[in-house]
Amino acid sequence: MTTINHTGVSHTVFHMLGIPGLEDQHMWISIPFFISYVIALLGNSLLIFIILTKSSLHEPMYLFVCMLAGTDIVLSTCTVPQALAIFWFHAGEISLNRCITQFFIIHCTFISESGILLVMACDRYIAICYPLRYTTILTHALIGKIGVIIFVRSYCTIFPIIFLLKRLTFCQNNIIPHTFCEHIGLAKYACDDIRVNIWYGLFVIVSTIVLDVLLIFVSYVLILCAVFHMPSQDARHKALNTCGSHVCIIILFYGPAIFTTLTQRFGRYIPPHVHILLANICILVPPMLNPIIYGIKTKQIREQVAHMLFAEQKWTACNYC
């Protein structure tokens, strides 16, 4: 995009429309948004509480699940309440600084979650290929360092975009047809040349998300090779079963994101509200379903949830006696 039509005025306040074309349906659309947010908040909070309070779950796999649940809470809280404010109260006004802050948190959290999924794939590789050395390799100190590295990576890759946006003059428009702020979605309203923004955004995607996907694929190729060399069918089934939850989360996280990217790139004739709904699905669905998947498919977590619920019911019944 070349420099055009500078007016000397740069917008510092923007107005978000929510889902354009479906304004009369906002109240109905808000229902699944609200339900998914409540489920995500309660489910992930319960998951974190159980893992942190039960010493039997202080294993590497569950600590990574705890990290994943924390990022899901941040991702949902950063986006859904604002969308609900737009749907319910038409409160779509947002300052430039707040918009940049929101996009920064969303992108950092998304990249962090991708990094956690990569580490969880490596965790499964070590657990299956080196079971006797599992706890000696993945110590609590190393897990803490991994968590810091994941956060620093996401922070360092997204932080320069703040300056790339701050240098722009937003003199074209201040109406954002979306429920949350995005990098290029905001930059396209500038009258300046945004090619640096586009190329750096592409670099961030390739150096984080694409690289993570490739490394996860390599991890599972190595896992499958190790599994199919196991002599016992029961051992193979048990090894693959330990990866089931993680594979479901990977599909749930990357699937909608890849589909959304493809529709934005090639779906020129798809209505704008469809693109925005798909973008929201990437934000809404994984945080809502992640705790449900781990709660159902992971025996230890399922048993702890059941124990907590039944113990509470028994305590309540004793009070009535």
Automatic annotation (TrEMBL):
Keywords: Cell membrane, G-protein coupled receptor, Membrane, Olfaction, Receptor, Sensory transduction, Transducer, Transmembrane, Transmembrane helix. It holds the Pfam family 7tm_4. The chain crosses the membrane at residues 27-50, 62-88, 100-121, 142-165, 198-227, 239-262, 274-294. PROSITE patterns: G_PROTEIN_RECEP_F1_1 (PS00237), G_PROTEIN_RECEP_F1_2 (PS50262). It is a multi-pass membrane protein. It is found in: Cell membrane; Membrane. Its main location: membrane. Residues 43-294 form the G-protein coupled receptors family 1 profile domain. Putative odorant or sperm cell receptor. Belongs to the G-protein coupled receptor 1 family. This is Olfactory receptor. It comes from Ceratotherium simum simum (Southern white rhinoceros). The lineage of its organism: Eukaryota, Metazoa, Chordata, Craniata, Vertebrata.
